[in-house]
Amino acid sequence: MKVGLFFGTFNPIHIGHMIIANYIVEFSDLDEVWFVITPQSPFKQKMSMLSNHHRLSIANIAVENYPKLKTSDIEFNLPQPNYTINTLAYIEEKYPEKQFCLIMGEDNLKGFHKWKNYQTILQNYELYVYPRISKEQTESRFSNHKKVHKVNAPIVQISSTFIRKAIYEKKDISTMLPASVWNYIDEMNFYKS
């Protein structure tokens, strides 16, 4: 089974994340996509960052009706600060029967050469890259690498930052979140203060 790992804080997960993940799992050779919830760094406490537990709960609610989409809290138990290479080693050990790949936006690919052990990642893992609109349209030096697959997923210009700000400003942005996620966030009064 081939699994794409989609890393992020998902604070909160929104329809943009869901559209990208679902598109990739339906229109590539991946069998599943896992949202890997990145833990809050103890060194970077942010007032607007929900706890690991709450962000995982929201992501679980978002994927409950999508059997090919899963969540993972695998990074919650790894030493911080953590690097993707460490997560990959750990997840492979835990699930030796699965083949893992990375999912990232074009913007992350541009800075990929700054990642710890990026050569090892590129040697051992495929990268599925979805388009992002950015100011500088410079090609990444990895764009033509045989392990890098460009996925023509829809570009959704919604960010978690925008969602949090809109909720704080009492805007109705319910259409930008899965309905069950919006209901949960509203009930729990998240991001309102």
Describe the protein.
The protein has a single domain (2-157), classed as HUPs (Rossmann fold, 3-Layer(aba) Sandwich), CATH 3.40.50. Helix content is 34%, strand content 16%. The chain has helices spanning 15-26, 52-63, 84-94, 106-110, 118-124, 160-168, 179-187; strands at residues 2-8, 32-37, 69-72, 99-105, 127-130, 148-150. A 6-stranded parallel sheet has the order 3-2-1-4-5-6. It is globular and about 45 Å long. The N and C termini lie far apart (43 Å).
Kindly list the characteristics that best describe this protein:
alpha/beta, six-stranded parallel β-sheet, 7 helices
Number of E-type strands: 6
Please name the CATH topology: Rossmann fold
Q: State the oligomer.
A: single chain
CATH architecture: 3-Layer(aba) Sandwich
Approximate strand percentage:
15-25%
CATH superfamily (homologous) name: HUPs
Shape: globular
For the terminal residues, how far apart are their CA atoms?
43 Å
The mean pLDDT is: 92
**Proportion of helical residues:** 25-40%
Structural class: alpha/beta
Quick structural overview:
The protein has 193 residues and is α/β, with parallel strands linked by helices.
Produce the secondary structure layout:
Blueprint lengths: L1 E7 L6 H12 L5 E6 L14 H12 L5 E4 L11 H11 L4 E7 H5 L7 H7 L2 E4 L17 E3 L9 H9 L10 H9 L6
Parallel strand pairs: 1-2, 1-4, 2-3, 4-5, 5-6
Helix pairs in contact: 2-7
